[in-house]
Amino acid sequence: TWRRSALFGAAGGLAVLAKFSSLAFFPAVVAAALLAYLVGGWPGFRGLFGHARRLALPIAAACCVAALVIWAGYRFHFGPTPAPELWSGIKSVMEHNRTGHLAYLLGEHKVFGWWYFFPVVLAVKTPLPFLALAGIGAVVSLARWRQMSGAYLVPLGFALAILGVGMAGHINVGLRHILPIYMGLAIMAAIGTVRLYEWGRHGNWGEAVVAVLPRGFGWWVWQLWALPGERASRNTWANIALLVLAGWFALTSLAAHPDYLPYFNLIAGDEPERIVADSDLDWGQDMTRLGTRLRELGASSVTFRPLVFDFYDKRGLPPIDFGSALAPGPGWNAVSITMWKVMRMGVDPPLRPWPDLATLKPVERVGKGMLLYYVPPGR
Q1: DSSP readout, 205-230?
Q2: pLDDT tens digits, the chain, 379 residues: what are they?
Q3: Conformational region of residue 150, where left means phi above 0, alpha means psi within -120 to 50, and beta covers everything else
Q4: Best CA proximity match to 29, nearest among 134, 163, 204
Q5: What span, in angstroms and rounded, lies between the C-alpha atoms of 276 and 337?
Q6: Chain centroid, CA 266 distance in Å
Q7: Is 54 helix (H, G, I), strand (E, B) or coil?
Q8: 174 neighbors 104 (Cβ within 8 angstroms)
Q9: In whole angstroms, what is the distance from residue 377 CA to residue 330 CA?
Q10: How many whole angstroms separate alpha carbon 180 and alpha carbon 17?
Q11: Helix, strand or coil for residue 301?
């Protein structure tokens, strides 16, 4: 309808105003949705042409509304083109991607990143029960790929398209750059949740699993699965799995409070900085905690190279000595994990920041992103 077309265009314009990456994500997810539609129920060239003809004017209207919203966001500035800041911003992002960005992953540093950066970070920063439910949903979606004109494939295609765009880029500084992927994953997790509930009620989850296995292998699995008298047991296990995963997911979210930004799942262990840092772990969010803790310790000064310089004096920190990037100073030393792991304390190889930092045991970890050391004077 024209109303939906106008709302669709307005949403598209707001997306572009919110973040330029929508200009890369949106075409990719549209292509994924179109592919899912064509795979799930090929309408023939005549039907496809008919759909395109019916949608041509509404799509044109949506594009006009999007352009108007974007131009309004730049206060209808003109010179020499409408919204020149938009084109300047897009050019800036493209240049940033072309020149790369210093990044850290699994102990390595690169300027142009790794193709597997986002899969790794997604695996360690997403709650495990959520990943399990999304995985079940993906299996169900693949098993139902012909239903509802391929609609079951759309959330999976959406998530893979977002991931693909992220993997193709050269700016590997945080999971936040592919945050929209969780919309597709959330729908798949919902499909998995509903399917587990259905399996618990009807005891047919074995059939669903076997349906997506290779034919010969699936037959043998089914012979082992369909043992007499086991239907009630299967129902019980499906219900238990659903309760465990849903409860685990809820408790994970509650336990993460208030450290949502630096959350890591159990795969990352107690030292997630061995895997990744930057905005996934330490983005300067623990500055106030650090100031509070240093006051409690009675510290008169601290050797510290803050990640964020523009507000450290407002966080209750004692006088800061920036010290040497090559060695800790006497007394209290605070270390931003991102400054250490990603920025190397501002030094480049072959020099190493604080060579003994990996072996020097911190007094404590302040929040998730700060390490606090004490070096006796004279050492």
Answers
A1: HHHHHHHTS-HHHHHHHHHHHT-TT-
A2: 899 999 999 999 999 999 999 999 999 999 999 898 888 777 778 888 888 899 999 999 999 999 999 999 999 999 889 999 999 999 999 999 999 898 999 989 899 999 999 999 999 999 999 999 999 999 999 988 888 878 899 999 999 999 999 999 999 989 999 999 999 999 999 999 999 888 877 655 455 554 444 555 554 454 444 544 455 565 778 888 889 999 999 999 999 999 999 999 999 998 999 999 999 999 989 988 999 999 999 998 898 888 876 655 566 788 888 888 778 888 899 999 998 888 877 776 666 666 666 677 888 999 999 999 998 887 6
A3: left
A4: 163
A5: 10
A6: 16
A7: helix
A8: no
A9: 5
A10: 15
A11: coil
How many CA atoms, within 13 angstroms, populate the side-chain half-sphere of residue 172? 28
Q: Which of 197, 87, 82, 185 is nearest to 130 (CA)?
A: 185
State how far the Cα of 149 lies from the Cα of 364, in Å rounded to an integer.
56
Q: Where are the beta strands (DSSP E) in the chain?
A: 103-105, 108-110, 302-304, 320-321, 331-336, 364-366, 370-375
**Which structure tokens are listed for 133?**
């439910």
User: Furthest-apart CA pair in the chain: how many Å?
Assistant: 84
Using the structure block, give the residue that is written with the tokens 């949106």. Answer: 26
Query: Hey, how many other C-beta atoms are within 10 angstroms of the C-beta on 335?
Result: 26
| Cα–Cα distance for residue pair 126/136, rounded to 1 Å | 15
Instruction: Give the β-pairing of 302-304 and 331-336.
Output: parallel
CA distances from 133 to 121, 136, 231, 250 (A): 18, 5, 22, 13
* pTM, two decimal places: 0.82
Question: For strand 331-336 and strand 320-321, is the pairing parallel, antiparallel, or unpaired?
Answer: unpaired
Distance CA 154, CA 332 (A): 54
